[in-house]
Design goal:
CATH superfamily of the largest domain: Type I PLP-dependent aspartate aminotransferase-like (Major domain)
Structural class: alpha/beta
CATH class of the largest domain: Alpha Beta
CATH architecture of the largest domain: 3-Layer(aba) Sandwich
Number of helices: 10
Number of strands: 14
Order of helices and strands: EHHEHEHEEEEEEEHHHHEEHEEH
Helix content: 25-40%
CATH topology of the largest domain: Aspartate Aminotransferase, domain 2
Bound molecules: pyridoxal-5'-phosphate
Mean pLDDT: 97
Radius of gyration: 21 Å
């Protein structure tokens, strides 16, 4: 088999090897079924077991209460940017408050503004989206039907350390690049969604956790595939779901349960990995600079710069030579970024830390 490299991509991203191995072992025929998961009906007993198992695992890990539905949808996280306001703002006169902390929440607010009334509760532009707001900086419209946030801005590496205070208004959250990386108090949320390809599985499926009373408010005049209530009534099987992607979410969540047991353990592991890199950066006398301000630094995506573009290019070229891949920053911001999701092993982060320290030693004198 070709040697695997350490893949620091932001998404699609590294998956746990045991999950990939299990999928490989069972690709020709699922045990007891005799057909590949790629070939079975989405209405078969075998797939029912898979999708129910994935939901059960998510419910256990995230401690999702009974009055929340778990949906497996298509269209990615970006479809949720539009679906949420289509279902809850459009033609209602209601408004929602949006916290704009980076690229993804900005896009979500723009999509929502096309459907209904959006109030911007805070915008991080003044400091180039390097932090999340303190509670006393938030200007939430008191009549908001939800407060929107992106809990982890994947591009800039800016993460909320905890939920913002909203005086009881439910949160709607894009948790695409952090769901399952730490415990979360689901009760604070009306809707919590995440595309799978960061931390849950492969691209193609988006997990939506939605409080059931929100479902009752979905309008009847939407196309059925955009209507949460109809999707929930059909257990996400209103049409053919992405069977293989759902299967992988099942295997990935099996792995989380086996390997860590609960999300507190996984959180501690993720924080330990992130600290290894942030500490190394701090020890290099300003050679590396982190985009995110202290207190808002992500444990999942670490966006950093080197002294100049030329040195960044050299860093990226040399890192690949030692098997550390996809450390480029997002095309919109440049620089470098290490994404260290749940499935990034400790050894991968140690290898990156060692490379960063060694690259610093070798290049510190060439740059002023
Ligand atoms: C990747 C990402 C998205 C986009 O997800 P798609 O599935 O490509 O639509 C949205 N929000 C966040 C926070 C992301 O990390």
């Amino acid at each position: 088999m070709t040697q695997r490299v350490y893949n620091f991509a932001p998404g699609p991203a590294v998956l746990p090897e045991p999950a990939l191995e299990e999928a490989q072992r069972n690709l020709m025929a699922l045990p007891g079924v005799g057909m590949s998961v790629l070939e079975i009906s989405h209405r078969s007993a075998a797939f029912s077991e898979i999708i129910q198992g994935a939901e059960r695992n998510l419910r256990t890990l995230l401690q999702i209460p009974e009055d929340y539905a778990v949906l497996f949808l298509q269209g990615g996280a970006k479809l949720q940017f539009g679906m949420v306001p289509m279902n809850f703002l459009r033609n209602t006169g209601a408004r929602a408050s949006y916290i704009v902390s980076g690229t993804w929440s900005k896009q979500a607010a723009a999509e929502a503004a096309g459907q209904g009334q959006v109030h911007v509760a805070w915008d991080g532009k003044a400091t180039n989206y390097d932090r999340v707001p303190a509670d006393d900086q938030l200007n939430i419209a008191p009549d908001s039907i939800y407060v929107y946030l992106c809990s982890n801005e994947t591009i800039a590496g800016v993460q909320f350390p905890r939920e913002p205070e909203t005086n009881g208004i439910p949160l709607v959250c894009d948790a695409s690049s952090e769901l399952l990386s730490r415990p979360v108090d689901i009760r604070r949320y009306g809707i919590l969604f995440a595309c799978a390809q960061k931390n849950l599985g492969p691209a193609g499926v988006t997990v939506v956790i939605i409080r059931k009373d929100f479902l009752d408010r979905c309008p009847n005049d939407l196309p059925m595939m955009l209507n949460y209530r109809q999707l929930a009534e059909h257990n996400s099987l209103l049409n053919t779901p992405p069977v293989f992607a759902v299967y992988m979410v099942k295997l990935v969540t099996d792995w989380v349960l086996r390997e860590f047991g609960d999300l507190q353990k996984l959180k501690e592991f993720n924080e330990k990995k992130a600290a290894l890199l942030y500490d190394a950066i701090a020890s290099c006398g300003g050679f590396y600079t982190v985009h995110a301000a202290p207190g808002s630094r992500s444990a999942m995506n670490i966006a950093f710069r080197l002294p100049n573009a030329e040195t960044e290019k050299k860093f990226l070229a040399e890192s690949r030579k030692v098997g550390l891949y996809n450390l480029e920053g997002h095309r919109s911001v440049g620089g470098c970024r290490a994404s260290i999701y749940n499935a990034m092993p400790w050894e991968g982060v140690v290898a990156l830390r060692d490379f960063m320290l060694q690259f610093y030693q070798a290049n510190r004198d060439q740059v002023g």
